[in-house]
Amino acid sequence: MNPLKKFIYELQEITFLIFYAFSGLFSKPRYLSESVKQMDLIGVGSLPIIILTGFFTGGVLTLQSYPTLEYYGGQSQTGQLVAFTLIRELGPVLSALMVSGRIGSAISAELGSMVVSQQIDAMRALGTDPYKKLVAPRIIALILMLPLLTVAADVFGILGGGVVANNLFGLDYNVFLTSVRNGITVEDIIGGVIKPLAFGLIIGSISCYKGLSTTGGTVGVGRSTTNAVVLSSIVVIIIDFFLSRGLQHILDAQTIS
Amino acid sequence: MLSSEEKKIENEEVEEKTERQSPEFGHSFFRADRAVPAIEFKDVRLAFDEKVILDGVSFKVRKGETKIILGRSGSGKSTTIRLTLGLLKPDDGEVLINGEDITYFSESQMMKVRENMGMVFQEGALFDSLSVYDNVAYRLHEKDVEEELVREEVERMLQFVDLEEAIDKMPSELSGGMRRRVGIARALVGEPNIVLFDEPTAGLDPPTARTICELAIKLRDIQDVSSIFVTHEMKNLDYLAQEYAIHDEEGNIVFEEEGERLCLINTEIIMINEGKIIFEGKEEELRTNRDPYIQKFLNGK
Fold first, then answer.
1. What distance in Å separates the CA atoms of residue B206 and residue B233, rounded to the nearest whole number?
2. Cis amide bond preceding B23, omega within 30
3. B115 vs chain A: nearest CA distance in angstroms?
């Protein structure tokens, strides 16, 4: 298959997968407990790495931007810069990348080995729809958990920025927090929460698709795991650009007018 | 073997009977719906890209009959089973289950059909994350059956495969033969009237393989289950085509050999080579067939 054909084929298959997963939500049986279990695994399980990522990203933002801001006499605006960058861009994108590394790989490896050991076939033979039982709970858990994780990353990022500004550059916490509060708008926060909703869908559907389309034994599982992480990371970054552009149009237009 | 009388009747005669559906055939073996084959393939074709897997395969599995599918690895045996379950769709031709054409059934329609079917996978295909109990109870849990009834049924099924002691173990703690038997127990929950075996004895020691064949014979003769038994091991063929299970005076199930004068007619053999059926008939006919490929398969040289 040539690359273009393959791309269109995969896009079609992923669209079908999302469609099957969501159309199954409206009929019984609903696997609510399965969704809760996945939320725990994805949300609570990823919290430590998300907090660490957020904290140090916020810290390094202050570290790198403070000297420049000081040069222009704008060091009191550090909080604004850190918060703005985190909430709009780095929070959603970095959380999505961390989650796609941790959860995307786990999902596609788990589903992939289920395919290889015929457990998916067995499930279908026993009358269970794997899209309902396996795919839908994972995608839903990702869509619900990723925004929460992003908020955690944002909060701890701002905290990290504040700690660095205070300890390394002697900036008062109050000055830092005031500039955070003045600098960001409701639109920034809305935009910063809409993005991870989309990223959750992307990571979930790509990882599930790659897992379920595994062929070729254990080697195949490794291959689809790698593919799932690489593809979902790249798609997250590409979609982030277009989402940012779109959100600018929708949200910022109101502020300007 | 009461069912044998009915099975001798030619198809056309039986079909006539379906139309009459008269109450005078009070015995269950003469119920009209027994005339409809449990599984029927009509000129089924399937290819993956360029590779032809099945090339015009047609056969019938009557109710209560066991069809043994022989063939070398990669000859399309397992594909036949996957088509029967609707896990794969044929490129051309029809697949009928209990007279119903399932070829173009959607996944949700298939779920209903699969309720009456059980499948035993090559390696057991147990769910790694669930205990033996949960694996066997899977179908019942999906239907929200009361836990008390579930436990009863699971214990009964595990007793059938002689594995009561493994109930709380995880699949990773089981040996290959035990996994296969748990797989059989899981497939039999809900008493399906069609059971499909996909090389259930591959890689097992002879006594365990024998146990699994005995289970298949019991299903065929005592429970009146229709089945497809895919294998490439000749020992299985001997067991399934030459022995039958009956209740002795004390009500225990015993296995007897058919001997020289009997011929089990509820077991037939199909041999597939390169996607085509090259032989269909009784075991005795297979043994006397002169085809060089069949002879090579039977004798290994």
1. 11
2. no
3. 6
Best of B109, B114, B134, B145 to substitute, by most chain A Cβ atoms within 10 angstroms, is: B114
Q: Assign B6 a pLDDT band (cuts: 50, 70, 90).
A: very low
CA-nearest residue of chain B to A119? B125
Instruction: Give me the numbers of helices (H) and strands (E) for chain B, helices first please.
Output: 11, 12
The total of structural domains in chain A comes to 1
Please report the DSSP string for B233-274 in residue order: -HHHHHHHHHEEEEE-TTS-EEEEE-TTT---SSEEEEEEET
Q: Which of A122, A127, A128 sits opposite B125 (nearest CB)?
A: A122
Alpha helix positions (H), B85-233? 107-114, 132-142, 147-160, 176-188, 206-221
Position B44, amino acid: V
Q: Is A3 exposed, middle or buried (0-12, 13-18, 19+ CB in 10 A)?
A: exposed
In B45-60, which positions are buried (b, 16+ CB within 10 angstroms) versus exposed (e)?
Answer: ebeeeeebbbbebebb
Nearest CA in chain B to A113: B128
A7: tokens are 């791309």
Contact (Cβ atoms closer than 8 angstroms) between residue B199 and residue B122: yes
Residue pair B95/B101 in contact by the 8 Å Cβ criterion: yes
Q: Which of A29, A118, A128 lies at the smallest CB-CB distance from B125?
A: A118
Which residue shows structure tokens 């944002």?
A154
| Predicted pLDDT at A36 | 94
Does A8 map to a domain?
A: no
Rg of chain B on CA atoms, in Å: 19
Class of domain B37-116+192-299: alpha beta
A96 assigned to some structural domain: yes
Residue A92 in domain:
yes
The residue ranges of every structural domain in chain B are 1-35, 37-116+192-299
Helices and strands (H, E) in chain A, number of each type = 13, 0
Task: Give me the residue label for tokens 């719906």.
Answer: B33
Q: What is the residue-averaged pLDDT of chain B?
A: 82
Name every chain A residue with its beta carbon within 8 A of the beta carbon of B118.
125
Q: What pLDDT digit, counting tens, does each position of A53-72 carry?
A: 999 999 999 999 999 998 99
pTM of the model: 0.83
Look up the domain containing A204 and give its range: 31-256
Residues in A closer than 8 angstroms to B108, CB to CB, are: 129
Cα B269 to Cα B260: distance, rounded to the nearest angstrom: 19
In this prediction the ipTM stands at 0.79
Residue B180: C-alpha distances to residues A125, A128, B165, B217, B229 (Å): 16, 21, 15, 16, 14
For residue A231, give Cα distances in angstroms to A105, A123, A196, A238, B252: 11, 27, 17, 11, 60
Query: Quick check: is A54 in a domain?
Result: yes
Distance from CA of B230 to the nearest CA of A (A): 16
